[in-house]
Amino acid sequence: MAPGESAAWGEFYGNGAQASDWADLRVTTADRVVMPLKVLVSGASSAKSDFVRVAFATKGDGPYYAWWGNSKATKPAEELEIRRGV
Predict the structure, then answer these.
(1) Inside any domain, residue 46
(2) Is position 84 within any domain?
(3) What pLDDT does 85 receive?
(4) Global pTM exceeds 0.85
(5) Under a CB-based contact definition with an 8 Å cutoff, are residues 71 and 41 in contact?
(6) Which of 28, 57, 58, 86 has the most CB atoms in a 10 Å sphere around its CB?
(7) Which 8-state DSSP code applies to residue 60?
(8) Number of domains in the chain
């Protein structure tokens, strides 16, 4: 097995309440543990301004939740480093 965390991906449409650079986006486990993530596609690079596709680290089977729209959120310090295919 290649080094690094296991990862998954998800895609969804926001509701227009997100930060323009998705700096307020978080992916969490059911226990609200924030997982490292990387935005793969966002409004700036797609036809839909509120579309996002993310890869995120996993800790096993889900569920996982995506959160956004918190106007007080700042960009997380840790970004997912992708070291193998998803």
Answers:
(1) yes
(2) no
(3) 63
(4) no
(5) no
(6) 57
(7) S
(8) 1
- Look up residue 82 and give its two tokens: 């992708």
Structure tokens at 16: 């227009």
Return the closest-CA partner of residue 59 out of 79, 84, 34: 34
Q: By three-state DSSP, how is residue 26 classified? A: strand
Q: Can you give the residue range of the structural domain that contains 36?
A: 7-67
1-52 pLDDT tens trace: 555 568 899 998 887 778 877 889 999 999 998 999 998 887 655 445 678 8
- pLDDT given at position 14: 81
Residue 75, pLDDT score: 77
28 located within any domain: yes
**Cα(1)–Cα(5) distance, integer angstroms:** 10
Q: Which residue in 1, 80, 83 sits closest to 35, CA to CA?
A: 80
